[in-house]
């Protein structure tokens, strides 16, 4: 079983600044994948970035980067140069490599101020 | 290419009624999963169907059922609706049954309100 913890219910960030969203996880699977999704008010879950547990380097996708610290079981998302369109709910999720479902955290609401 | 589609977008039902939600996966994807997202929480896994068979089930009562059709589209059925069933129901498709390293693509969801 996997458990995801996101301790920041809401965050405010100034436009063009960077923001870090925390995610810690717990699992008994030796191999697993970590995901970050963005959910705007429309409701659709938008995939942002993926990190495999055996990946040697931290994942990056444009303005998104994942700060993966395996020993600490953390997978924080960093959004650089925030834009107004980044205002949304952000979810951290994980799955075991031989699993068929995603386990999600409670999410963090990000509000970008002009 | 079209993404994952879901219908209807919104739905209002009363307690005790039955509801059917529909999902069409991305073309070529054989796996469809259903998630329930209650307001203010993260999505919770309900079912996965792969190649028309149920491959996984979350901790939901038997009032929840689903099926997958030969074209890989899927229906989620909920009987005897309760107020607590009010939620956003998300459908996701993927190319494989196992998700390690495989992205799940989500649809826009169906917002169900039970009065």
Written overview of the protein:
The complex is a heterodimer of chains A (114) and B (115). Chain A has no helices and twelve strands. In chain A, strands 2, 5, 6, 10, 11 and 12 form a six-stranded mixed β-sheet that branches. A four-stranded antiparallel β-sheet of chain A has the order 3-9-8-7, with no helix packed on it. The model of chain A has no long low-confidence stretch (mean pLDDT 94). With 114 residues, chain A is mainly beta. Chain B is mainly beta. Chain B has strands at 5-7, 10-13, 19-24, 31-37, 44-50, 53-57, 64-68, 74-78, 87-94, 105-106, 110-114. In chain B, strand 7 (64-68) and strand 8 form a beta hairpin. Chain B is globular. The model of chain B has no long low-confidence stretch (mean pLDDT 93). Classes of the chains: A mainly beta (114), B mainly beta (115). The interface between A and B is medium-sized, with 29 and 30 residues.
């Amino acid at each position: 079983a996997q458990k995801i913890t996101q301790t920041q219910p809401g965050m405010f960030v100034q436009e063009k600044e960077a923001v870090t969203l925390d995610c810690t996880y717990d699992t008994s699977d030796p191999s697993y994948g970590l995901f970050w999704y963005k959910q705007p008010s429309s409701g659709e879950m938008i995939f942002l970035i993926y990190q495999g547990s055996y990946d040697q380097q931290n994942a990056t996708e444009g303005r998104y980067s994942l700060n993966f610290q395996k020993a600490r079981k953390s997978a924080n998302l960093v959004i650089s140069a925030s834009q107004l369109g980044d205002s949304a709910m952000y979810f951290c999720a994980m799955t075991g490599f031989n699993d068929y479902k995603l386990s999600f955290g409670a999410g963090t609401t990000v509000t970008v101020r002009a | 290419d079209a993404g994952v589609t879901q219908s209807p977008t919104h739905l209002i039902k009363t307690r005790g009624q039955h509801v059917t939600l529909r999902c069409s996966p991305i073309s070529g994807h054989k796996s469809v999963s259903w998630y329930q997202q209650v307001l203010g929480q993260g999505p919770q896994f309900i079912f996965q169907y792969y190649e028309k068979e149920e491959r996984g089930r979350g901790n939901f009562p038997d009032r929840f059922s689903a099926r997958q059709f030969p074209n890989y589209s899927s229906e989620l059925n909920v009987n005897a609706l309760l107020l607590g069933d009010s939620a956003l129901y998300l459908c996701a498709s993927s190319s494989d049954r196992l998700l390690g390293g495989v992205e799940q693509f989500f649809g826009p969801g169906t917002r169900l309100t039970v009065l």
